[in-house]
């Protein structure tokens, strides 16, 4: 099958190892690879797509619409080597009955692993402990406020907002600990949540009970500023809010006020404006850690997405269902 890689060389080299591209060819793919450093323009994409049966896209690729799709009347599938397909796949793709898959599940595994690491780091107050060691000398059994703030995973309550790919895998990772996991997600039943290892609750109850509030919900209209002043005020004293989703899910002005009170802490991988301006309170508040949008794949982890997309090509060629295939009827619940 003629298979076009629409992303530029810079992205292709970061996502696909040469061995994976060779595997595609060995399985029968007639590869057409865009060789320029940057991604193809719509005009270049239309030229590349002539006669294509499969197109592989990734970050920054042009939308699949108009002349780009018209150049490939036999297009069977879009394999998106990234997360959300909404910036690339248009209504025209779905109207033509073209199948679509993405690497969202693979990308989300990295997010879930980051979520676990940040959860443990927050519970243990590693940042405060490290600063205390440097400022006050080594300590072991010394009694002080830093030591009093250190907690273990045992017996804690972790609240997860969003049970998509990342949320579900995070809950799976939490099964190795003796703790209580809460989940809020309108697409889940109580039975589904229990199978994932969590108790299904409403958002307000989750905020009241959780030591860690992990935000992993999709950025859709229904989640815009879902965490505002009233909800944030429900969080327990000493709790930590961790946002690995998108900045738009939180009313940042309300969060700043809560943080300034000293009641809670926050770890933010994402913000509304990235990066926040130098004068933004997030940059100076002592109870905020900013991680610079690194929760998903950044370097070598990207190669797992490329491997998955090659596997998806193999499943497509064999007439099998692709593991990451997207049901268009669920688009309004997906990032």
UniProtKB/TrEMBL annotation:
Pfam families: 2-Hacid_dh_C (PF02826). GO terms for molecular function: glyoxylate reductase (NADPH) activity; hydroxypyruvate reductase [NAD(P)H] activity; NAD binding. It comes from the Bacteria. The keyword Oxidoreductase applies. Gene3D superfamilies: NAD(P)-binding Rossmann-like Domain. InterPro entries: D-isomer_2-hydroxyacid_DH (IPR050223), D-isomer_DH_NAD-bd (IPR006140), NAD(P)-bd_dom_sf (IPR036291). Keywords: NAD, Oxidoreductase. GO terms for cellular component: cytosol. Residues 117-295 form the D-isomer specific 2-hydroxyacid dehydrogenase NAD-binding domain. The keyword NAD applies. This is Hydroxyacid dehydrogenase. The lineage of its organism: Bacteria, Bacillati, Bacillota, Bacilli, Bacillales.
């Amino acid at each position: 099958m003629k298979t076009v890689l629409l992303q530029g060389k810079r992205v292709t080299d970061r996502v696909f190892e040469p061995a994976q591209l060779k595997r595609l060819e060995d399985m029968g793919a007639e590869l057409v690879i865009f060789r320029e450093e940057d991604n193809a323009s719509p005009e270049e994409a239309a030229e590349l797509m002539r006669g294509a049966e499969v197109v592989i896209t990734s970050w920054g690729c042009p939308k699949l619409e108009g002349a780009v799709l018209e150049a490939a009347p036999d297009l069977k599938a879009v394999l998106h080597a990234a997360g959300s397909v909404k910036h690339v796949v248009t209504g025209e793709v779905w109207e033509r009955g073209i199948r679509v898959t993405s690497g969202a599940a693979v990308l989300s595994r990295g997010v879930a692993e980051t979520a676990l690491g940040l959860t443990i780091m927050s519970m243990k107050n590693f940042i405060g402990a490290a600063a205390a060691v440097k400022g006050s000398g080594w300590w072991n059994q010394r009694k002080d406020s830093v030591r009093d703030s250190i907690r273990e995973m045992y017996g804690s309550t972790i609240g997860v907002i969003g049970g998509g790919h990342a949320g579900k895998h995070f809950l799976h990772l939490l099964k190795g600990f003796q703790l209580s996991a809460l989940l809020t997600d309108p697409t889940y039943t109580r039975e589904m949540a229990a199978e994932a290892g969590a108790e299904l609750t409403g958002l307000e109850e989750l905020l009241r009970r959780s030591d860690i509030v992990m935000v992993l919900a999709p950025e859709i209209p229904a989640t815009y500023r879902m965490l505002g002043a009233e909800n944030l005020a429900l969080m327990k004293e000493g709790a930590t809010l961790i946002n690995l989703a998108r900045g738009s899910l939180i009313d940042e002005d309300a969060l700043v006020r809560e943080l300034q009170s000293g009641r809670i802490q926050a770890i933010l991988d994402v913000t509304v404006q990235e990066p926040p301006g130098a004068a933004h309170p997030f940059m100076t508040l002592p109870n905020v850690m900013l991680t610079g949008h690194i929760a998903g794949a950044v370097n070598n982890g990207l190669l797992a997405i490329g491997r998955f997309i090659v596997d998806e090509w193999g499943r497509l060629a064999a007439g099998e269902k692709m593991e990451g295939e997207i049901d268009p009827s669920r688009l309004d619940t997906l990032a």
